[in-house]
């Protein structure tokens, strides 16, 4: 596997000045009718001096190869002159955003879900990006999709009934993103790619089970709410009986306590407004 070799070529300004001097010399030769010398100088100027001039912009690099052999990479921005016979390939070092398409996969529990991720990446080692893979842009796309599919398969979308899973795709966003970034760095290191950030951008149940899962979530929420209501109601009934007993307002036998508890629980746990009924008799008539 190729290792990146950074080179610092000479400045291109002196070479450009030489180009102008040789161009002037060739013109002078043509004026003085020295056509052979003028043609030789002009050919040397345009075929050996001018092609070696390169401009490297910030966050940009040039990968140089000479007759199929890797020479080095120019990463410094500026105006340079390199061997005119080398092949120069531009590789951007800027950060790139990959907005992955929505994938339909099965989670750990077998539920079909839709998932997509956003990946921020950049080329870290140009030699690997150019020589280790056929097309590093396509390589990033395919490996990112494979990593997202693998991540979706090893975690459930949500907690299963009666089971407490440590990490889920829905609730463990930070941990899932951390694992996705780690796996992408392992997969893309072969191509000299560094992943700066990776996050899940879309997560939902597939349309065919979305309505059923929504009903399940609603039922779970209703049960949880009822549980809190009942716990609160029992505490209020207990407090009411304790206060009545402490202050001696009324003496209640076990049957009257049971009736009072029943009435209070109906009032506190009911989901509708209670209509009061005035009892003008006794408990036993």
UniProtKB/TrEMBL annotation:
Keywords per UniProt: Membrane, Transmembrane, Transmembrane helix
Domain of life, source organism: Bacteria
Domain Band intervals: 51-217
Subcellular location: Membrane
Keyword RNA-binding on entry: no
Keyword Ion transport included in the entry's annotation: no
This protein's name: Membrane protein
Species the sequence originates in: Pedobacter mendelii
Regions that span the bilayer: 12-30, 36-55
Record membrane topology: Single-pass membrane protein
